[in-house]
Sequence to fold (202 residues):
Amino acid sequence: MEQYGHEALSVDVASRLTELREERSMSMRTLAQKSGLSANALSMIERGKTSPSVSTLYKLAEALDVPITAFFVPSAERKRIVFIKSDERTRVALPRAIWEGLGGELFVGRVEPFIMTLESGAGSGERSMAHTGHEFVLCLRGHIEYQVENQSYAMESGDSLLFSAHLEHRWRNLGNTVANILIVLSNFSEGDRPRDVHLEKE
Fold:
């Protein structure tokens, strides 16, 4: 996995999850029930013993009623203009992957672009995900398999994919090298947190 500039913000998802849960005076058992996760699995995540997949993060975000980006960036005032230097992106370590925010976590509008860096064999999680809005995917490097409903799309550098995000979807790096994909979530319903779905860890 490539290294990033020292100014990048690295986020401790385990601690942030505990913080979000306690802010809502929600017990671990209640969160487990609302998210569909086992109490043991949730405990392992909060203790940093395991990393949640993108799909798991989506479930937790929905149960906590927060956007998925809440796991990566403390609550902050959203802006109409967001400028981020490449070495100052918010970055979150996922199982065999890195999520990089491109400003959507700080923007007032309903668009959330981010980059996923995936090691060979890494993917979005065991379960498919679905949410409101549209999803645009651009393969920047490597070989990605993106599955939408029952159709699989083999993506190489430069290939793009656009679909209605209410269709169940998932992805995986089937190549032997690191892959990078740009994902842009847009036009989702107010209050929806599509980013959270894509932040689950395997």
Observations:
- The helical segments are 13-23, 28-35, 39-46, 54-64, 194-197.
- The radius of gyration is 16 Å.
- The beta strands are 9-10, 90-94, 97-101, 111-118, 134-141, 143-148, 151-156, 160-164, 169-173, 179-186.
